[in-house]
Write a structure and sequence with these properties.
Immunoglobulin-like; rod-shaped; 1 helix; mainly beta; Ig-like_fold
Length: 707
Amino acid sequence: MAIPPNAEGFKAVAQSETSITLQWNKVNNNTSFVLQFNGTETFISAPDGDGPVNHTVSSLTAGANYLFTLYSVLNNIRSSGISITAATAERPSSCADTGCPSGTECITRNGAVQCLDPCDSYTVLNDTWRSINNNDRTALHCDRYIAWNGWYRFFLGQSSAQIPGRCIEEHRCGTDAPLWIVGTHPNQFNEIVTRTVCVSGGGTCCYVSSHTIQIKLCYGYYVYKLQQPFTCDLAYCAEPQGFSVFAQNENSISLQWFEVNTTSFVLQYNGTETNISAADGDGTVFYTVSSLTAGTKYTFTLFSVSGDVRSSGEQLTAVTAPLNAEGLTKLRQDETSITLQWNKINNDTSFVLQFYGRETFISAPDGDGPVTHTVSSLSAGNGYTFTLFSVFENVKSRGVSITAVTVPRNPFIYIPTYQDETSITLWLYGLNNYFSHFVLQFNGTETFISASYEYVLVAHTVSSLTAGTRYMFTLFSVFGNLRSSGVSIVAATAPKNTDSFRQSEQNETSITLQWNRVNNDTSFVLQFNGTETFISSSGGDGPVTHTVSSLTAGARYIFTLFSVFENVRSRGFSIVAATVPPNAHNFRPSELDETSITLQWNKVNYYINFVLQFNGTETFISAPYGDGPVYHTVSSLTARTRYTFTLFSVSENVRSSGVNITAVTGPKIKGSDRNCYVEGSLQPGVWENHGRDRKTQVLRTVFVRSL
């Protein structure tokens, strides 16, 4: 299916401290829209009717810049998207500190400080005594003690008036020393100029320069930001607005003048004359000259006509607004600057670049190539709206705007705090006023990671990885369609545990462990008794062996073995192993008769068991309680028979080397001869018998003679 076209005319048409109203042209009745900003998306149905689409985004922060991206959507297919940057209005209480956009002023209204247009927020001054024709000195006025605040508009009667831009004689305007301005009034709509105020006195036109004031041209009238003069008696003069320009565009100039008892007028320019009827009564006349050429200077001469008599004429030079520059585009950008480019108009036309309430004058360039200009000292990852005006004779064009963004700063990517055999968890951090989301790049893939909060700390887990493998991750901040330069780290997954971790040999003071190697890049850490031993990975294919020495005989140890790759450990695998226990001491028979032998030995410790081996059998004997010797009776034996007993100490299934003794059961005794004994020769295996309650004695083998 075809990709739908982007909507045209996407722009911000209104904003407040907490909302921005966006507008764009609909595509058709079947195409809906998705508006994306701050990591959220809003679906907007295809509108009815033919007018533009309006959508208000609310709950925003005052004085904040936002990047909006609008997609056309048809059959679930999105357009490529178009982006603009728009800002909410500053909070009124802060405009005195932060300044106001061009053409507005920080004005107190109803107790609130706001950025307002002086053309809409002014105080009327309609004192008739301010007229330049007033030379009455019976009541002198002074503006020294008026608390001037904000902007003012002059009236004489019902007609707009202005401060004279020429020398006024002393003792006029209801004061002793009249105030007038040096220089012309602004001639471009919304233009604000600063002019010096002169004091007529001491027999001269400008006895002293008192101070400066600001003047703004509104639609058909001027407003003034007045200041206190330095002494009395000084007062501002007023006169009817003269022959002047109050507006112009690319192909027309609007003129105004004040009529008094005039029947008609003749306007002369470019060798032509135009008759203009006078209005009824006195007042301001407005007349627009059209079909003019953009960026061109014209000389107009106005004649008042009364009957058949013309006045001497009043002459005015004015210019049409120049054409907008074409080809305004963003050439390149980095974190702190944006370079713009546009086509020059001619050698007489300069430019003014406006953004964030600031204006930069750019002279008309030499040569025929395009104009380039770099705006620096910008904030990284921020959107800017630039408006470019062509300027001819101080008159600006309508202006053309472009939105561009700086490259966002790199975020921070932290060394992973957790990884296992198949995943790595990374910590990503950035400031969201510098970017709108992250892109994580590794192994030729890219992952979009949303960043919807002002301060972003995101834990992101990359899964389905290979154990014991080194990966390089590169993280980008993204703002609009721009990426930061990227920051990279290397991280590894945990290696697998080794196979066949086991005890291979042991003696009374050492244990030899053995396991299969993982690969030539994987080392090991052996942990036991609170200590760790690093074991490097050596070449070869055979198993790894490691002997732990200086151990205690018959002791139980827990060994944990970790595989290590790039300083990352495996989960670890543990085994229990023991050293060979010591043999029991004083192993001997303590009693015997015809069918049994009682054996005795000293216990080793509380957890050492024993195995008694004789006649091809083994008997397990648990570690006894108490501190005395161990006794064990072997019964069901044969009289007059020699037996060999082997005793092993046992710990964790590990046996000692064993100790042997030989003992012989006694002969059978028949009837009354039971007490008749014949001492035979001493047999091998004579031992000392420490009986339970007997003294030590030598026991010899005694044969009982059968009757």
